[in-house]
Amino acid sequence: MPRWDPRARDRLRAAALELFVEHGYDNATVTQITERAGLTRRTFSRYFTDKRDVLFAGSEQLPAAMSDAVRRADATLPPFLALLAALVDTGELFVDLVPHAAQRRAVIASSSELRERERTKLAAVAEALAEALRERGATASAATLLAQVGIAVFLAAFERWTDQPEHTDFASRVREAATELAASLAPVAGLATMPEHS
Predict the structure, then answer these.
(1) Which of 32, 36, 147, 162 could form a disulfide with 15 if both were Cys (CB 3.0 to 4.6 A apart)?
(2) Which residues form the HTH tetR-type domain (predicted)?
(3) Which residues have a Cβ under 8 Å from the Cβ of 36 and sit 6 or more positions away?
(4) Residue 58 has what pLDDT?
(5) Contacts of 16 by beta carbon, 8 Å cutoff, 6+ apart
(6) 87 and 161 both lie in a single domain
(7) pLDDT for position 193
(8) Given this model, what pLDDT does residue 65 score?
(9) How many domains does the chain have?
(10) For the chain, which residues score pLDDT lower than 70?
(11) Is residue 189 in a domain?
């Protein structure tokens, strides 16, 4: 085996996810992960700081990547359409996650520690998106609201895409989720004309 294996990160991630699913996140160890992957602990440390990092490595880049995509969106687009364009634009960032996305979701759902980490990650992305939307002219409250809705659209699109990646691409799933959202909100437009309760 060569001293440097370009597939080492993928092998470690696959081995970790298998063990997390089989034995539970809390019960799997880094030693077991490296043994299953046929690699050393030193190699593990080259890519990940700990076993939790297997699930979240690279996520620290998401806030900047997604907010930068909002800033790059066509200047004529209103804030929410700029946000949707940014989600479509960042789809390539997630291609490597597709093979293990369902396993990752299941592992995170099984652990309160991991669910909290996931919430923290998404909160950081939402704040970065809100800041970029404010720069495009949205009010502070509107930017916060739109960013949260954008995260919901992203999560729905990502789950659908990774469940059936062979059927369509991420961009199509974003458009699908956004269209469903718009359709469900259409009746809300009539609320402004409803009489208030006395």
Answers:
(1) 36
(2) 6-66
(3) 15, 18, 19
(4) 83
(5) 28, 33, 51, 54, 55
(6) yes
(7) 58
(8) 94
(9) 2
(10) 1-6, 188-198
(11) no
How would you write the chain as a 3-class SS string? CCCCCCCHHHHHHHHHHHHHHHHCHHHCCHHHHHHHHCCCHHHHHHHCCCCCHHHHCCHHHHHHHHHHHHHHCCCCCCHHHHHHHHHHHCHHHHHHHHHHHHHHHHHHHCCHHHHHHHHHHHHHHHHHHHHHHHHCCCCHHHHHHHHHHHHHHHHHHHHHHHHCCCCCCHHHHHHHHHHHHHHHHHHHHHHHHCCCCC
Q: How far apart are CA 80 and CA 197, in angstroms?
A: 31
Q: Which two tokens stand for residue 133?
A: 């939307």
| Structure-token pair, residue 61 | 């880049």
- pLDDT at residue number 51: 93
Distance of CA 111 to the CA centre of its chain: 17
Distances (CA, A) of 128 to 60, 120, 160, 177, 197: 12, 12, 24, 21, 38
Which of 134, 145, 151, 138 is closest to 63 using CA atoms?
Answer: 151
Q: Which position has the token pair 């063990």? A: 19
CB neighbours of 32 closer than 8 A, spacing ≥ 6? 19, 23
Place of tokens 């996931």: 118
- Neighbour count for residue 130 (Cβ, 10 Å): 25
**Domain of 169: which CATH number?**
1.10.357.10
Q: Does a structural domain hold residue 96? A: yes
Q: Quick one: 30 and 98 in the same domain? A: no
